[in-house]
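Run log // design_07
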């Protein structure tokens, strides 16, 4: 995909990081309620992390209030320094091989119908921590056989070997977010490569065509509407089934600024375009995040898949 070399060179010193005033359609519910407090206690008691808390997800109040959460594995320190992310970064501790058991026990205690598992990047490891993903998938299946599982994985630097480890455990959904358009990759996520995202998503379909694949895009970081559409075309050509599109919200002044807010009509237009491209499911709205309505996605699409192939 062609890029504009002039626009690629962004000088951080010239960026205004003052948070923009949020428009009327951005309303975040504060986390509260009995279910929220119970889930928070459960996470602390098992020394677990959630991306809901670590990344400051705007849907934490809604999701935790209904008893669902996205588990963050491989510790809570990431080896990458993405400009949009509020997860801590630096030198992580050694892998905790008991973590999959604690996550699986929490999933069972919550009685989840659909569990979402994600992680920080662990670039100091050749396998990127892939065995931990496989372990937690298999253990959840043992403890709670009726629970479907979605894994939101790092790019593993495009490693086919690491991806095979995860795919061998057969999650219902294999998710990896591209996050932004190719032109902004180095600016938004300096240690990432677009080609690594392509390798993860296209190879997942090659390894197991029956596994649903999923990806997500943030908007409002300086991309054009046409660039978003072109990235959607790429994702569909890689065989991605499910797409999420949401508004980037600046966690703090030290993070990348919001270039603009997309309107609800623009999100609806992107949803329509995605369905026209052939995605089986598109979530596109200001507060959509990767695991938003994940349970509904897997239940409906799995039922469709069974009708088509059984």
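design_07 sequence
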């Amino acid at each position: 995909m062609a890029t504009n070399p002039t626009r690629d060179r962004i000088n951080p010193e010239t960026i205004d990081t003052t948070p923009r005033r949020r428009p009327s359609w951005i309303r975040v519910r504060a986390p509260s309620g009995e279910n929220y407090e119970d889930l928070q206690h459960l996470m602390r008691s098992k020394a677990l992390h959630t991306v809901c808390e670590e990344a400051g997800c705007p849907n934490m109040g809604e999701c935790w209030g209904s008893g669902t959460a996205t588990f963050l594995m491989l510790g809570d320190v990431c080896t990458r320094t993405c400009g949009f992310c509020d997860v801590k970064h630096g030198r992580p501790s050694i892998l905790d091989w008991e973590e999959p058991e604690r996550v699986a026990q929490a999933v069972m205690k919550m009685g989840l119908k659909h569990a979402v598992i994600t992680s920080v990047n662990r670039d100091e490891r050749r396998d990127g921590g892939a065995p931990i993903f496989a372990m937690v998938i298999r253990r959840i299946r043992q403890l709670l056989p009726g629970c479907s599982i979605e894994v939101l994985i790092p790019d593993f630097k495009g490693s086919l070997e690491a991806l095979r480890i995860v795919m061998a455990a057969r999650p219902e959904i294999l998710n990896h977010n591209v996050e932004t358009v190719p032109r902004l990759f180095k600016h938004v996520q300096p240690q990432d490569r677009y080609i690594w995202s392509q390798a993860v998503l296209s190879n997942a379909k090659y390894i197991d065509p029956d596994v649903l694949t999923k990806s997500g895009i943030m908007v409002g970081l300086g991309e054009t509407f046409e660039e978003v559409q072109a990235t959607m075309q790429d994702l569909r050509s890689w065989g991605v089934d499910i797409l999420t599109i949401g508004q980037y919200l600046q966690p703090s002044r030290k993070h990348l600024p919001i270039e603009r807010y997309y309107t609800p009509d623009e999100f609806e237009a992107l949803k329509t375009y995605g369905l026209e491209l052939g995605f089986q499911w598109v979530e596109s709205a200001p507060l959509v995040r990767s695991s938003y309505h994940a349970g509904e996605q897997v239940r409906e699409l799995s039922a469709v898949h069974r009708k088509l192939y059984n």
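Residues 294-309 form the longest helix (16 residues).
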